[in-house]
User: Fold these one by one.
Assistant:
Number 1:
Amino acid sequence: MTVPAAEASYIGRSPYRYGSGHDGAGRGVTFMPWGVKSDGVPSARSRMFGRDAEIAEVRELLADGARLVTITGAGGIGKTRVAMEACRKVSGQVSFIELSGTDEAGLPGALVRALVPGAATGRDPVRSIADALTGEPHVVVLDTFEHLLASVELLDELLEACQDLQLLVTSRARLRLSGEHVVPVGALPTGAGEAAVAMFYQRARAVGGLRPAEPADDGQAAVAALCELLGGSPLAIELASARTIMFTPAAMLAALQSGGQSQLRMLAGGSTAGRHRDMRSTVAWSYLLLEEPARRLLRRLAIFPGSFDLDAAAAVCGPAAQDEVGAAEVQAGSDQAGTVLDDLVDLVDWHLVEPIAGSADAPRFRLLDMLREFGAEQLRTGGELTATQDNLLHWSMDFAGRAITGADSPAERLWLDRIEHELPSLRAALGLLLERADATRGVRLAEAIGPFWANRGPMSEGRRWLSAFLEEDQRDPMLSGRARAAAAAWSVRFAVDEGVLDLEALAAARDVLAAEPGADADWLRATEHLAYGLTMRGELDAADQLTTAGIERATLNNLPYWRCIFLQRRALSAHRHSQSALAVRYAQETVLAAEAIGFQRIVARAEQIIAHERAAELGPEGARLALLANLRAHEAAGDLRGVVSTMASLGGATISTDIPAAARWIADGLEAGAAIGYWHGEGYCVIAAIVLLVRARRPLDAVRLDNAIQPYMPTLHASLPPAHYAAYRAAVESARGRLDPAELAQAATGLTGSWPVIRGHTIAIARSLAAPAETPEPATRRRGPRSNPELTERELEVLAAIAAGQTNPQIAAAFHLSPKTVMHHSTSVYRKLGVRGRAEAVALAYRTGLLADTSSKPADG
């Protein structure tokens, strides 16, 4: 006997409960008719978001005759709902069996009772089911199968015995049966206007939270960031939205980001019984179903605060390292990679570990925050925390040794990228070393990260760590003279970029390193740091002497990386001396030397000097194009300092021809400079903004801002070429000449405060100039594209990234902008196109040709 087409069997507990009963054997099996809907699927109680593609894929597989389809995904991701919606239009009969309350021994009987009501006892269950289902197509949904994976052979036998049967299984892990078609269900998209955000608002309003109904842009940004933090999990979003009766999304986000609230505690109190009542129960259900090696790996992976690769996982999850065990043994731990890989595959299968983008030869993985929190709890309660921390430290020190060598080479970009990938784990290691008062290893690790902080920031972070370890060494001296000098050199170097130009400690450190045998690279680095500091102080002749010494020593010791660095510094010095022809010649020599060894960062910096010196002969448009190409070169080289300085240059170069574009470059440069702690770069942007205000006929604002930065001008003046400084002063004096005495007095008192106040004020002014007021349109304007949407080049790039499916944080990282700046750009795109969000913008862009549809074009080559 089969279940009628308009009904389905249901076993166990579910939020989709409609009625109950017992089978003839009286075994307490819950029988649930699927309601009275003609398609045999019950109506759900809430709206579904963002699963159209998965539902369509399942339907297509079933329609094409796939015998076994498995919907996989993490707990609470929405597998059951996808299965239900996919079955709404399935031809033939459908039975739904929920198995969370069934064990392996009871599975055969449970299937018989659900699919063959009244079946005789003692008969082979496979034969009973096959006889009952033969004759017409029948889809059986087996929901929550992950705890029954040891019984997959039963499903294999059923499919072999019943040719009219199709199985649709939901499970946190695939079944690994022949002929299985896996449909993974992943996180909901979390960007503004995407499914996760829409779901959060709908669920929050359903519980009486989030008033008014139409949120402001800042509120949407907070919700999008919160959904991103929650990993796009529908269950987590639903649980978090229920908290909006007490917290605003921004407050909830701040609490979770600061660590003031546990995600597992915050995401509790759901209305559903069983494993989905809160996130802790959901995670624990998966954890308890793992074999012990996989559980151990999950616990230990929680030590990584960010992503990790296979080598790091193998090193950290091996035996606890002891202080006397050297880097060689940690490296030998990579032999365990095969074993760790097997367990890691299991965790990926169970959607407990998530693969993320990485290089082709070094794929990377991560735990979601709530999984990391759960794993850390298990690590502590199991007494494994200290041993795992020791392993993390040994891996970190091995990485540091390789990074110090790699970053001092033409492979610098590769190693800066690697450091960036590992930075959360390296920060955790620095924190552990500081807790243990281990200045020796702490300084070594900070030294390894130094090139990253110097080129990508934040430089203040490097200074803080080094200062902390040097203070620890003062309390209990343990550093060698060489290590102490190298740390002092880096610390002063970071201070220079914050506008602190006390160089005596750096000069002393250089002298110490000069006497150390085999310390050529350390001495060259200290020499370059000191030359840079002297340049920023305006002592160009003294800097030139150091530069010459650096070129000679790097050449003598056959260190082409360092020779290129000092050649570029020589060209920059000529530029600062306003020796145009010499600057171009030196820069061209630098380009040739750097290209010969593939040192792209120095190529880009030398070409920036050439673009500046040839600006007059290139003309405004030629100079803009040259600087734009240079910006892309800095981005390709991963040189964020170069990005900031080129943005400032682009702002200055476009002031006379395109005020809104100049303002955008200046605002973007200020935000990027603040993000990496490049104070001089910010200062150059503020100076460009003052000239821009003069050009925009806002003399009062120009003079007010010039007055505000006077305490900082001695430092900025020293680092500017004389011609540039003279042009800036001429513009300011022309603005002063347009003001009457009362206005001059107003300008003198209108803006006071610290540098962050000046920065914020300048960004606000630049943003206002970048988006001039438009004529208001009638409130009843029909939504749709403007007649000629004039998107800026940056807006087109952001639109293309949106079309590629990137989130705002991903776009911000790719273009070296803050997420808030990306939000400004995307909002501007939507406004200009007259659309409501991402999906409409992308569809319109392809339809109107703003973005090229390459789907039908052949691949190159």
Number 2:
Amino acid sequence: MSRTTRRAIQRGIQRATWATALACGLLLAGSGLRAGGAAQAGTAPPQAVSKEQVRLEALKREAAASVGVMHDFTQQMVDSVFSFGELGFQEFETQRYLVEILRKEGFTVEEGIAGVPTAFMASWGSGKPVIALGSDVDGIPQTSQKPGVAYRDPVVAGAPGHGEGHNSGVPLNITAALVVKRIMEREQIPGTIKIWPGVAEELVGTKAYFARAGFFKDVDICLFTHVGSNLGTSWGSAAGNGLVSVEYTFRGESAHSAGAPWRGRSALDAVELMNIGWNFRREHLRIQQRSHYVITDGGDQPNVVPSAASVWYYFRETDYPRVKGMWDIGDTMAKAAAMMTGTTLESTRVLGSAWPQHFNKVVAETMDENIRAVGLPAWSDDDQALAKAVQQEVGVTAKGLDTELTKLEGPIKEDDKRGGGSDDIGDVSWNVPTVTLRFPSNIPNLPGHNWSNAIAMATPIAHKGVTAGAKVQAMTMIDLLLRPELVAQAWEYFRTVQTKDATYTPLVRPEDSPAIELNRDVMERFRPEMKRFYYDPTRYKTYLEQLGIRYPALRPAIKAGQL
């Protein structure tokens, strides 16, 4: 961070401190209003407000104002990580860039945690509470896309990109952490801040290993963030599924496919029979299940009977016993396929896992109050024009960006769950009280894991959404630091409600280890070309400027007013 930026932040903090202290004192002591709220008719006269409450609200408003001052710094981080576009387990440029920032800001960083080269845990401060800030960093295959361009236009054809928006969350957390860190230093507030990336989340490949290695054993609260199209959070049992990711490898015998096929034993036949069996069995599984596969090794060439073949499955369900039950069925089918083909089931390898998510009620309610105080960003006409054009491009109603906050979501009833995606933040949520903040940096109603989901992620939409999210994150951290009863209540919910009738049992086995070789070949193939387009903030204010994109870039028909 430049010296000029630091001075600007400090000036902003000083202005915010005096203004918010005065405003908060008047507001709380004299008007009967809650900070950020409206008076209600017929309410009781305001009661005396303690100095601690006034201080708390003043510091929260200061934190939000300081995040706003850091907008350009935040934007540079968002754009930089977007330009790297790295796939899971290969986020080396992203790691290097973020770790350098954190070390310059006084954080101690342990790299390569839990046997994952691109993972790290950064720490600052001392004592309790320990607040861990997490978010994912990996990209999606073949989603390279120029930001701000409302139609398919890759930066590098065929290359990976941020078609999920994972370039935004850690920059949000770093911004919030730096603001809170400076307040803690000045106010002599005890506590520890930890920052960690969700490496290879698209492979659900690491968080269970982080938990197994003990990286959350001393954490009091985990505040996770994930990109979305609105500003909100939830508590209780979430809608998504848990999963286990398993690769099955079969071993047969090669032979000339035309000259002597009877002498061969096709491992590919075993893979195909397993897949056929699973597709027939799928009809008789619960509607909540999701299961899918890819053949990762189907042999070398058609004229050689494949002596080795592998298939990679995701088994998804709403709770641990049902995920485990699907996995058992898969194992049985694999063994049967080997018997039918005269091959051997050589190995099963767990490549990733995720427990179903359960989020903390106390922390979510605290965060939601701050969400109401911050509100959604003020979207410009250009922001809305881009959003509507992208929605039209993918074939959904062109409604634009959300302008009203969502409500705090509570638990999903078991009978109402209909399956869906997974996130290995679920493993963390069963080890420490956790919530996920969803922040509005993307466009509603896009398909997900798609090039269109990358369009907004290095534009003013993403920058504004990350800033709004960082304000909420910083304010929630202040609440947790200055209100120890919240931490105690969060753990009470964790022990007496969440884990009362459920015990966390990792889906990864003792012999399993992170699949750090995944995506290596893809990144080695595309990285040299992608490097040509890494963002250079010393020369360009934004990544849009570096790429020469006039925001928003719409199809001519849309520019002519046909939207």
Number 3:
Amino acid sequence: MINTFIMNEWTVIILILALSVLLAWYTGKYMAKVYRGKHSLLDRIAPLENLILRFCKIDASRQMNWKEWLTAFFTIHIFWLLWGFVILMNQHLLPLNPARIPAMEWTLALNTAVSFLTSTNLQHYSGETGASYFAQIMVMMFLQFVSAAASLAAGIAVLRGIKERSTGYLGNFYKDFLLSMTRILLPVCFITSVIFLLRGVPMTFKGLDTIVSLQGDTVQVARGPVAAFLSIKELGSNGGGFFGTNDAHPFENPDTCTFIVHSIIVFLLPMAFVFMIGFFLEQRKFSRMIFMVMFIGFLIITLPIIQQEIKGNPALTNMGILNKAGNMEGKEQRFGAVLTAFYCGVNVVIPAGTTAGMHDSFMPLSDVFMLIGMQTDAFFGGLGTGWINMFIFVIIAIFISTLMIGRTPELMGKKISLTEIQLATVIILVQPLFCLCMAAIAANVYIHYPGGNIALAWLSNSKAHGFTTMLYEYISAFAGNGSEFAGLGNNTAFWNLTAIPVMLVGRFIPMAGAIIIAGNLASSKYTPPSYGTLKADSVSFAVFLFFVIIVVQVLCLFPSLTLGPIGEYVQLSLNQ
């Protein structure tokens, strides 16, 4: 019976992947029409968009170079940050707070505002007890929408840098941002929110409900405007749960149907963006090459996680405990080891970071692939940002490969200069350098703080697993993932404040660097490809690109993996 159940779970996984690819292809084609200004399904809302632009006094026809684009991008983000911080600090004074939730402590409020601003959604609070309905809507949901739209606009700007012929322009940030909201995010979110509502997800502004459990206990049950919140949570590669247990909570994920919908909308836009590349640049072969690299990378990250969780915990087997259902610690019985592990794989390669089980309870080798998946952040990745990270890897791979054949590096007729290569290299090195330095500081504080772990109240596990817990926090924050190990007591001033620069650097350094590179490419002269030009859309280049990604990421992370999850695996093996 167990084997039959596992086969049914694999059927669900295949169904999710098939539907995701199919829907993403059509969505990508539609997105290309939207951003290229061609006739599309929602053209009738153009008067409303024009009204919004006129009200904000924005000239949508004005083209921006990379400096103007980044100025607009950062200016509006500063406003959003202040907006979120002020509301969280004053949520106890604002309406829609039936549970009378107090204001957030200032370090937690700042951490939360930055977290949702950067699409990280690293939650150092529990949703149903830490944020009022007003804060959930006006801060969390609002920032999930605008950060996702800004990411899409950034991805489009990079594509324009490749497509433009010596103009130096990357489009108009405000126009692309608005189109991302009105033509893509809002319509899809409306459809999926209705589906969630029909499947029993709550949508109410009433306060706590009182029920009597099967064993006769009277309990208070949290609820709220959950159905509207969930769609952008996953569609925007955000992941911030309305409830503390995220998609393991029955109100966020009632059944297998909602599990399938959750999984598809996590995949939908990152996949669609890859297909859109082909339609937008009129380079279908290049987009297929990128999709192939991303999909294989996703499988290489996800399948080992599933395999480890199916095997179960050998420590239980050695104790004579039946372990056929796999490693079920920290997992929902409704979804089992296979679907929970699959959902984990999806949400570490796509930095939605939403969870259906506790990652802290996964097997040590599963942690290895989680960390590599988040560190890479280019196997589909987030909306626009996944393509941006892959774009950086493409620049690096082109540079290395052309050195081998003695050619000048170029991408689609645009020469890649020393400046672009230097910027790409810095972006690649910033993540491991920044995350590992912060993890080293945390480990040093943990070891030398008077009273140790008891005084800090940080870790429920010590040794290798404890180090993995701290390392995971920073890599997740940098990658814009936001998932966490539940064994970390992170609502302290130390974790709230040290995670902030990690999230900011992880969001804005790769994005700003890619925009500068795109601006330089847009200014450079187009040179038609010749017979000796490196073909960046070939299978051989795809293989080379994939190995460049793996080698760079694994080499950067391997020493830390040996101290953390690999060290824990060795310890468990020696104890058997």
Number 4:
Amino acid sequence: MFASLKRFLPRAHKQQTEQVHDLLELTSDGIVVFDKRGIVVRVNARAERMLDRRRQDLIGQAFSTLIADEVERTRFTQHMPVFRATGKHPLVGQSREMSVSENLIVDVAFAQYSDKGKPLVAMFHRDVTDRRHTADRLHQREQQLELLLSSTAEGIYGIDMQGNCTFANRACARLLGYDNESELLGLNMHDCCHYSQEDLVPTPKEDCAIYQAFREGVRVHRDVEVFWRKSRTCFPVEYWSYPVHAQSAVIGAVVTFLDISDRRTAEHALTRYHAELERRVEERTVELLAAKEAAEAANLAKSQFLANMSHEIRTPMNGVMGMIDLAMESTDRSERQEFLTMARASAESLLSTINEILDFSKIEADKLELEFIDFDLRDSLEETIRTFALQAGENGIELISDISPDIPALVHGDPGRLRQVITNLLGNALKFTEHGEIALCADCNWEGDRVHLHFTVRDTGIGIPEEKRDLIFKPFSQADSSTTRKYGGTGLGLTISTRLVHLMGGRMWVESEVGKGSAFHFTADLGRSHSVVVSRGTADSSLIGVTALIVDQHEVNRRMLTETLRRWGMMASAASNGLEALALLRAAASAGVPFRLLITDSGMAGMDGFALAGEAVAETALAPLGVVILTSGGRRGDAARCREAGVTAYLTKPLRSSDLKAMLLNVLSSRTQEGGAEPSPLLTRYSLATETGPRNLRILLAEDNAINQKIARSVLEKRGYSVTLAMNGRQALEQWEQHSFDVILMDVQMPEMDGFEATGLIRQRERISGQHIPIIALTAHALKGDEERCLSAGMDSYVTKPIQPQQLFQAIESVLAKRGKRRPDVRLEQRFLKEEQDAPFTQ
């Protein structure tokens, strides 16, 4: 239209100007004419309506004011100089869309003509606002659809009736292993990605479910098939195929699909989990049945335990009460002594049972804790095994102490609990061993400031069946827990010991063979003591170079004694029997270096120690300077045999290294000073203990209970101590102010003024005088924290009731030693009977 109009205007310019103007008024396009100045000179009626302005308002206005688009307005302004200079406008012959106003978009075209010789430019504009808005909306929808197809995780593709791809989204290309969608266009999708099953069995097109959509015009869904990638690897898919219709005819199909690999993995995992769950349910059912049986067994064990406890408590209680009744009725002194000794043994058995029950209750309440102090480990082990020497000797059992020389003297830990574990194991060993030997072995290794200890208690007893080895460590359980069992006990000892060992950073286990014996092992982790201690291995000048022959049929005893003597600088040799010892004695005498000391066990097979001593002493050339007999237990007649054989000293095993060294020094000293005088008396552990002589300590006893007063006073006075009584803390304070004492034994619970208050007042007044009297607490409280409370109150030591004499004497000795006083005598409570009565030696 615009081109034909452009050709028409020049021809009609001269002859039909008015007709052209009339024609311009009638056209459906808006027309605005401007001259070389850019001023509007003519506007038709359609332009008035489109621009919504009157003609008289438009004529005379700058044409640029009619252009709303800033870019178009700038371009028009830039072309006007060219139009004025050349008479030809650059926009003539061009057409474009232009925004005339916010609500009007027009399609414009420019044509130039002359009117009376003046060049004019006519802008023809047609309203295309609706068309532009429609096109914009269509483009926006196309963009949204493209964004939707590109953003979805589902693969989507379309196929025609031959199965060739007509479109595909980005997810489809990605899932099938292609770089972009265009690679799929035109490909036969069945041949591309759906040609076979996972097991490589081909899928014919006629059987393809996707084709079914456009063959039958129905929706198809599958979730058990696979698609193949470009790389010829497959993956499980779930897909839907929908027929596509055009004018009621099917022209193809649209396929959407998902990669369900994760779902399949989850399904397989769920299947496995279901199977595992069923298996666990079955196992749990078995466990619950086992737990039910275990609970029933535990109830039975507890019932048996209660029955045994009733026996273990009532039996010694009956012994205490019965023997006391008999003692009260008896008029014979020796008979009363026998009855009271049996009553005391029963009371000690009852106390042991009560202590085990209390310890177990602490375990159950998780209140069992350790204390950490510096203590002499070697001394503690030697003292512990010594307490079993008499019982072992009476039963004819060899008690062996095999403590490694690497064991340190001082360590940091809980000596009481360590001793409790070893005591329990040694006690069990003695209980279940009728003949043979029992050995306590100890070894260690260091790791920084920690010493890792390994203890073994080995016996030749009855042994433990394999099926019972785990049971014995459980509470309320014994290898034989029936009421007809041969061996008594609570069945709590090993349970308590195991927990104590665990608290000490170790573990406990057992090795055993029925009929041959058992070996109980446990480990403990203790700290290094930073206290200064003189090594017990330090050689004494009197022992250095002294030759000694050790005779013992037990290899462990020989090795232990040999190593000990050599650490002291002695020249030690060993023999396993009497004949071998005599041969060594004769060979040494012939070489001019006779043995100065003969240390022999008394109970050897064949030639025993007494016979060997007699032979050695009888041969003048062989006669050593001193003969020391070692025995596992004193027997009636030993004193006479020692005298007949010319024995110098007599010691019971197990030996404390300090006792042995003191004994050897005394033997050498007595023989050196003897000369031609009468032979010196037989040396024993008691003669060593009495060298320092008794010390008459002055003790203030603060105790309100009359029976406890009687017991404590009698024990202390038999020791040779002077005792003053106070009925309560107030009297104790008055006695302390009026008299001089070496030690105060202070009960903590008393009327009027208790032991804590009395101790506090004493300590308060001592701050003025600068003095300090040792105070030992006497209390029935034995819970964790009671000892700390006593020490924090100003007391120096702590002894629990019922009071054991040896424990009390050790506490007194300890506080006096700390105070710098001479140690009191260490005589044991057993009396050494006169040799004339042929009584056994006991320690």
